[in-house]
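Sample entry (470 residues):
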Amino acid sequence: MRNRFTKALSLALLAAGLAQASHTILPADKAASSPSNRATLGDPVPEDGVPSYSIETRSPYSPGTNAASPTASNGNLTPVPAADPSGHEAPPAPATGLLNAPQPGAFAPDSQTWFRADYLLWHISDSRLPPLAGMAARSFADASELPEGAITPVLGGKTSFDTHSGVRLDGGLWFGGQQCVGLDAGYFQLEHRTLGFGLTSAGDPIVGPVFNDLSSQRLILIEAGFPGSVSRNEPQRTATMTAGTDERLWSVEANLRVRGPSVFSDRTDLLFGFRHINFDEGVGVNTVSVIDPTVPVTGGSILATGDSFRAHNRFYGGQIGFQSDYRWRRVFWNFVGKLGIGGMHENVNIQGATASITPAGAITAGPGGVLTQPTNIGQHNNSIFTVVPEIDLNIGYQVTPRLRAYIGYTFLYIDHLARIGDQIDFNVDRTQVQALSDFNPSAPARHPVAVINDNFMWAYGLNFGLDFRF
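Predicted structure, serialized as tokens:
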């Protein structure tokens, strides 16, 4: 009778415990390992094998939920990781570090505008110039004509500006939150670089401008700096020569950006737009020759010559292209390809003059220097169909949800334009050169001529940039 009563009481308590949503029924032999917030009813009853049970009050932080369970520490609740309901140990925490940072998700998926700024370190393909100035040893002062090989070019051949610093800025906006259609615009400019040369000589060595004599097909040095020669009845002359060349490149573009199919990338955008490129080059040579003031009659006379060549190239055309983006964790890389198709307007400006000043101060001046004569002086224009491909490759790191930093490489090619070295006709009729004794302006002149010669150019280099999203 007693055993039956005990069983009934145990079953009633068990049913009451199951009715409480915030309680859990645990066997008494496991109650010792349960949280301390519990009450235990009775001891096990060995006679009939009916165990006693403990009722455990469960806090809202229950195992099996996503919340962490609290433990008491000095009267405070400290969260601890929740237990796995399957009874297995929780997986280890993910690795930390720059490359193992948590996947950040899409880069500013809700942004409507963006802005990028790059520092450029580029190189422009070298230009080649004919020898514009030269020098010879003083020992040739008595020679009426300098022998072959006696003249050493001072300015000429391949001209290299090494690297150009520059800046590239571009930005744009999306029409709508889906980032499917937008507009962007970009601009880059390289610094204006110059190369210069200066020389002063009183005749040792002999210095001056040079050209190729059309009639004799020999290199001629105008002896602006000369030590003097009794046998030739030539006074001593002191020459100051300056020569220089420069170049500058910049571009602006605007594109309609449309999201395209992303087959081999995380995202691909198609570009349809307009592009303008501006490339300028120039070269100039100036010589001032002064006769020794102690020379009777002509002492102190000045003869100055100057040649200037400028090439201006303007490209206007349509542009198509694409940009493909790839991402792994916080590391990203992208590839941009563009092709400009349009017209290149080439303008070549050739100017020159010669001036003489007598000891009394009388000035005589006329057009034409050495390589610039009435036969080629003036503005000369040409237009030609041109293609301009460009590729960009960047790799970087997502610093914040709206900021990325990257490093990249750019290659730009222009297949038709006027390089300045190709616009200089080195062949000259010596009878047209006012600085020579056999100057005869009435003699027929054929050279130098003005013919715009096309060439190609490329620019390439590194870029370091930041990408902002708003």
